[in-house]
């Protein structure tokens, strides 16, 4: 068993696509438009083109309970998902320079360093750097 697709609910697929590709530097993997205006829209890391895909899911527009759940998770301060980075501080600085709103600055928490940002589409996303035991 392996992870192929993770779903991130987004309030606006076009806005989410722009954010995830222009700011986070993901690349488009799949883009299939449906009759109802929704899309099967996935992005992947440029470092793992055949790796797990992030589905920019229009669920909040299509299924009201998802909108309620997404809002509750956001307001509780819980990240929807996390992405690994090589250097949390460097990625934080790069994203801040691009105007990304962060809720937390990079902070060491045991074996990791984390920071959490707003993906502009209803989610808190966490970036995580694994720290070496050799520090």
Automatic annotation (TrEMBL):
Every VOC domain range: 2-130
Matching Pfam families: Glyoxalase
Transmembrane regions: none
Gene3D superfamilies: 2,3-Dihydroxybiphenyl 1,2-Dioxygenase, domain 1
Protein name (database record): VOC domain-containing protein
């Amino acid at each position: 068993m392996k992870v192929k697709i993770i779903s991130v609910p987004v309030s606006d697929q076009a806005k989410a696509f722009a954010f995830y590709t222009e700011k986070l530097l993901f690349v488009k993997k799949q883009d299939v438009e449906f009759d109802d205006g929704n899309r099967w829209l996935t992005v992947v890391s440029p470092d793992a083109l055949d790796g797990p895909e992030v589905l920019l899911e229009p669920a909040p527009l299509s299924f009201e309970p998802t909108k309620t759940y997404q809002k509750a998770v956001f307001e509780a301060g819980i990240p929807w998902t996390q992405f690994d980075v090589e250097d949390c501080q460097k990625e934080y600085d790069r994203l801040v320079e691009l105007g990304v709103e962060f809720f937390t600055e990079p902070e060491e928490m045991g074996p990791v360093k984390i920071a959490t940002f707003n993906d502009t589409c209803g989610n808190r996303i966490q970036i995580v750097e694994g720290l070496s035991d050799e520090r």
